[in-house]
């Protein structure tokens, strides 16, 4: 049994026009968007949503991940997920907002893990 805890889940949503989509999600969540660019796409984090837009090739890489899982200890989460049968697709690396890793769970789902 894994000892790590998932602190929150962020839903990923590809949008055609990030500027047009952000106001809807800000109103829906009551949160202000935090915008940034990463891996060839532009993104906006709004409450539990991660909106992204960009060229097809770059956007497909982001869309291939089902959700983002925030954890308090990224290294421990990766270690324990691997011990449970997960495969590391992208090892721990720095991002504009901390660190991330991408893992394929033993049942096929691909998830981004983020943490400090």
TrEMBL record:
Recorded superkingdom: Bacteria
InterPro entries: Glyas_Bleomycin-R_OHBP_Dase (IPR029068), Glyas_Fos-R_dOase_dom (IPR004360), VOC_core (IPR037523)
Entry-linked SUPFAM superfamilies: Glyoxalase/Bleomycin resistance protein/Dihydroxybiphenyl dioxygenase (SSF54593)
Domain VOC positions: 5-116
Protein's recorded name: VOC domain-containing protein
